Amino acid sequence: MAKIHASIVVPTYNRLDTLQNVLPTLLAQNVAPESFEVLICDSNSSDGTAEHLAAMMREHPNLRHLPDAYSGRAAARNAGVSAAQGEIVLFNDADIFASPDLLSAHLNRHASAERVAVVGWEVQVRDIDDYKLKRDHPELRGHLHPPSRTTLSWLYFLTGNASVRREDLLAVGSFDESFTGYGHEDLELGYRLEKSGVRILYEPRAVNYHCQDVPHDDQKEKMRLAGRSTVRFYRKHPDMAVKLQLGMTPVSLGAHSLLTAFPGMLRWFDARSQKSRFARNLVQQYHYVSGIKEALTQA
User: Fold this and answer.
1) pLDDT in tens, 198-254
2) Residue 106 class from Cβ within 10 Å (0-12 exposed, 13-18 middle, 19+ buried)?
3) pTM
4) Counting CB atoms within 10 angstroms of each CB, which of 52, 89, 183, 287 has the fewest?
5) pLDDT per residue over 278-287, tens digit each?
């Protein structure tokens, strides 16, 4: 029986609309199928995910379905880590298309260094057509980090495109499952990995494509929830670097108070959010800090 070198872990919940298009890209990696597995950690989806996976598993023995009542993405990913047979665990999501060499690019970096995590280039796309356009025309992808960058801090440990040795994940306790809301369960794991001596490497040749076009009002709510997660992060790790890097500063809190005092100004920026990136980012940052302040008032 061939040895499984890598496990691709994908959490999902009612995302069959994208998962059915993403899965073929994960299974079509340019390494031997018997050398890796794809684990779909499914929070008991009700949209036909189980039936779709059952049909696919008949053709792809390296595809596994792990359904359960997971409390969130952290718990789902931890189930994948626990079940993984590969030495290297690569995290992907149900709405992120993989390049054919995504896995091999990650494995190559792990082969040349000990105790590292590898973060690849997650290209943002609006829809499948945009994905195909940027897949076929690399010059349209822009840049995630400067081409000269080789290492990253925990602030960029984003598990839409990140790999770690399974033993390093288990050594630090994997994801903290108390992060059940939106945001920061991956950054907090990156923080612990870095503190344990794991270097975080950037590999721009490990490319995948995140297919999302979140409406502005939905993004405001996600940012509010991320702000609440920031406070949870800081209370667990009362490190000034966490405060500074996650924007929990007197400047951001003061700017929030100013906008709160002048609601007409906030509405003015919100009305222009569709045409102005500056206005959209400012309003979303306001809601992020709103989440921080909400969580700070709670024990």
Assistant:
1) 999 999 999 999 998 778 888 899 899 999 999 999 999 999 999 999 988 899 999
2) buried
3) 0.91
4) 52
5) 999 999 999 9
CA–CA separation, 73 and 176 (whole Å): 10
Residue 33 DSSP one-character state:
G
Q: What are phi and psi of 23, to 5 degrees?
A: -55, -45
Type and span of the H or E element at 145 = none
Q: How far apart (Å, rounded) are the C-alpha atoms in residues 292 and 223?
A: 10
Q: Where are the domains of the chain?
A: 6-211, 216-296
Distance CA 190, CA 155 (A): 7
Name the nearest CA neighbour of 132 among 35, 211, 17.
Answer: 211
Radius of gyration of the chain, Cα coordinates, nearest whole angstrom: 20
The CATH number assigned to the domain with range 6-211 reads 3.90.550.10
251-to-223, 230, 247, 255, 287 alpha-carbon distances in Å:
18, 16, 9, 6, 15
Token digits for 133?
């356009």
